[in-house]
Amino acid sequence: MTPAEARALFPVLERCAYLNAGSVGPLSARTHAVMQSGLSEALQVGRGGTAIWEKAFANEATLRRRIGAFINVPEDRVVLTSSTTEGCNIVVTGLRLGADDEVVTTNAEHPGLLMPLLASGARIKQADVLGRPAAEALQAIVAEVTPRTKLVALSHVLWLNGHVLPLADIKRETGLPLLVDGAQSVGAIPVDASVADWYTVSGQKWLCGPETTGALYVKDHERLRPQMQAYSASMHTDTSRLAFVHLSPLVVAGLLTALEDIPEWGFAQAAKMVARCRAALLAAGAAVRTDASQGTLISFRVPGDPAELVKAAGERQIVIRNLPDGWLRASVGWWTDERDIDRLAEFVS
Fold first, then answer.
1. Could you tell me if residue 38 is inside a domain?
2. Is the pLDDT of residue 270 over 90?
3. pLDDT higher than 90, residue 184
4. 263: number of CA atoms within 13 Å, CB side?
5. Does residue 21 contact residue 333 with C-beta atoms inside 8 Å?
């Protein structure tokens, strides 16, 4: 499959420069068709027959296997979730953190991770990485660790600036349990989740699957004592016991199809396009706070109200987003081409 053929999978790209996979990725025609077919089947033959359940369970097992292979972990350590936020909550609540515990995170975390940490009652220390070059992140994080620290919890790719945190170095330097929010990494850059103790996956973003899909890698399920339990806990004693939300067969089938769409050259193409996008924005006069050779998010600023700029871009069929701290963000994927970047650069210039 060539880049042009891969791009043709997504009807939205026929008219839009779609640059917001960091929120939700584009939907392919194949993924849409599979979900519509499943919906039609449910309408015609019902949703509770034996054949329907057998197919659903088989698809769930296949999805766990494919996600495991994609992030380089065993399939029996993968739990399907509805989001990265759910995965973070499963881990944080299962660790039973309290006031005597300390957690080190960063000042650039998404609420999907930060809010569960704050709700835990533990002492939360936020390393200042947002105002630093990417190369200084490791030092900033390690400096916050003390003998009281029980957990390091942070994103692989920071949602506010696209910087990639050095997970292996953080694990080696701290020697502490590591929870990773993979919302902006899985499907965007190569991932080896085995370096972490827990690693969350979003299905709706860079994997371009349906919303309310995701997964959680758990290195050792016995380290967690869940405070939320559901049907799976009554049926399983292994990692599967941690599953909390049963995913609709429609979205499971959709995410399976979306995973099949990803080409083997996807990571290389995304890296090429994000480098071009960063250079084009700088040339157009934008302020860019994302260092070179990081993730596939570019955080930039131009004069004007950010929310109004996003609306104005949308009117020109350019889909980006504004961030809560006043910056704009473009998400580049393997489906992005030079025309998308040129349209964005022309808009901001």
1. no
2. yes
3. yes
4. 17
5. yes
